[in-house]
Amino acid sequence: MSQCKNVPLYKSICPRCTRISLTNLACLLRAVGGVRWNSSFKSAPLLTAAPVRALIDEHISIKGRFLPPHSPITVCAQMQSDEGDLWEAFAHYNTNADGSVNLTRDHSVGGSYLGCEPMGLFWGLQPAPGSREGLRLRKKNVETPYVMLLSLLEGHVSPSERKITPLAAVTTERWYMAPDVRRTEIRQDGVVGTLFLPPGPGPFPGVLDLWGMGGGLVEYRAALFASRGYASFSLAYLGHKDLPGPLNRVNVGDAYFKSAYHILQDHRQVVADRIGIIGLSFGVYLSLRIATRVGVKPSCLVCVNGPVGSTTKLADADGRTENFENEQTHWRFDDQGRVSFKQMSLPANLCPESKVKLEDLPCPLMYIVGEDDLSASSTENANLIEQTLRAAGKSQLFTRLSYPGAGHLIEPPYTPNSRVSLWSFKPRKLYTLWGGHPAPHAAAQQDAWKKILDFMDSHLRR
């Protein structure tokens, strides 16, 4: 939100237009730790959040006090994304007999979510009315936090009613990087990525982090792994300016991924024989391929909603692909023109020569299924992995987590789910379906993250 030219930076309300600046109010609140407004009650209303600075996967306790008893109030959350878009969530509560509300204990009766959802204001965030279409919340700069403005409003209202004066407010900071986590850009032997190291001398177990065909370099999950004690290497493999073009296909092969693995493995602060790989979507195929044919031996794999082979024709035996958009036979469009890629990843529709020899899997595998995934045929791929490993006498290697109502993008806890988001601008604007319903998807993310960390601990910290 831009600064009004009529108001100095240290003020939050312009005397001419009476417009509240979210950015400046958040700065003011961080300086004083919260604000109480004047009230006719003995004590002014107070809103607290503890801790006010936390990692993105940590629980925040939100409480309101000194409010009228048995009265309707609204708790609202607002923040700006790294791109400058306003995201918000709100929930309606009724205060208790003592004039308090506690989000860990009390039930929302309306708004962005219903029921007792202590972190609903975080996973329930959605673009504010009037925002750009097809937004998805993704942290671009992990060295800065999300700054969340939490406020108490009188009555059961919507934050879109901008003229409402808050009864009380407080800000929280949500971080992917813990203090003293070290971030290093890697441009070595043609490999493009970012390495995150936990505080201390190490050595640490390692994680190679692979995302999907959206491309680019996605760092926030790797930063969070480092905050939890893992040397984490987020790897780009398409759609990045420092990689061979064109941007809409994979132009690196098996040797690239082997080099990336060795960069992590050979680091002096990494335990060489305790490295796992995590992949989402197309990153699942790459994780399986690396583990079975590239000549490295990971200690475990975590695969989230992805295929056992390439959804795009291979350009060579080394794993490079053709243009992703050349083959649209299995694309499916809904009545609003939004595309689902789910059919592309049915095992029968995968590029035959790319299918991984699952019977060669050398390490434990956790496969996570979102049962409402609209972008990948995750259940069918999980079934194939399970059946193949059973036939090979390796069923003990396979663990499946399956979540009803969860979509494709199972991310760290409390990440807002985007059921639909913008996929591409050219040659036409295209929106893709990810699936997932807010509350069950949020529950899946919280449970899966804990189990991912437990799984990695058991295989990488033995």
Calculate the mean pLDDT score and round it.
90
User: How many β strands by DSSP?
Assistant: 23
Instruction: Report how far apart the termini are.
Output: 48 Å
Tally of individual helices: 7
CA-atom Rg in angstroms: 24 Å
Shape estimate: globular
Structure explained in plain terms:
The N and C termini lie far apart (48 Å). 45% of the residues are buried. This protein has seven helices and 23 strands. By secondary structure, it is an alpha/beta fold. The strands form five sheets. Strands 1, 3, 5, 6, 8, 9, 10 and 11 form an eight-stranded mixed beta sheet that branches. An eight-stranded mixed beta sheet has the order 12-13-15-14-16-17-20-21, with helices on both faces. Helix content is 18%, strand content 27%. Strand 12 (182-188) and strand 13 (191-197) form a beta hairpin. The chain has helices at 22-32, 120-123, 220-227, 254-265, 282-293, 378-391, 438-460; strands at 35-36, 46-50, 53-55, 61-65, 72-80, 86-94, 101-102, 110-111, 126-127, 146-154, 168-175, 182-188, 191-197, 204-210, 231-235, 270-280, 300-304, 332-333, 339-340, 365-370, 398-403, 420-424, 430-433. It is globular and about 75 Å long.
